[in-house]
Amino acid sequence: METVPVPTPNFASATIWTGDNLPVMRGMNSACVDLIYLDPPFNSNRTYEAPIGSKAAGASFKDAWTLSDVDVYEHGELADRNPAAYAVIEAARQAHGKGMQSYLIFMAVRLLETQRILKPTGSIYLHCDPTASHYLKLLMDGIFGHGSFKNEIIWSYEKWTNTARYFQRNHDIILFYANGENNTFNKLYGELTDRQKTLLRVGYNLGSRKPLNKPIKIDHARCWVVMSEIYPLKRANRRQKWC
Fold this sequence. Notes:
The protein is α+β, with helices and mostly antiparallel strands. The chain has seven helices and nine strands.
């Protein structure tokens, strides 16, 4: 049986590039990247300036988009390369306008490259905000497949503004997609909160809130939880005791 060679990176580990990421990604081998975290412009229609006194003082970035900011040829190319992404962009143009259309063209050609360079076990996290998150989710559904969607992570922060006609807008969104059915995912562990300890003491499952067979006695804070379920520490670290 012939073995398929595993693609290898054509760049050194810990390499840092500056400039537009599109030509950089187009120069990378396919299926050679494990993880991508993407923090692109948000299409906020604002101009951002570097803080006074910083090394970047004087620099600015305009986060507003027109068709002159993108390669319109690439938009037409999307119709053949990924009809689903093209349809999302056309729908956004009708619902939101040419600014959103331009922004999504900019994003689509780059997301297609991220999908190409990710390994089948790889994952991508796209940081955005409610300005375009709903369009970006549809775009990623078209590029990665709707079944590859894993989580919409809400990043909440304090922001004190006097709003008279709506609630405070104080969160960002991170869209988590896999690039295949067997993506690598490392479970996150954290110490039990006081509420979780109380639930366990009275005999409730942390995830379903259904009764356990018997209450769990907790004598100290060395129990840990993962994904809202209780796990013995001896499985994660055999040097520590479970409660």
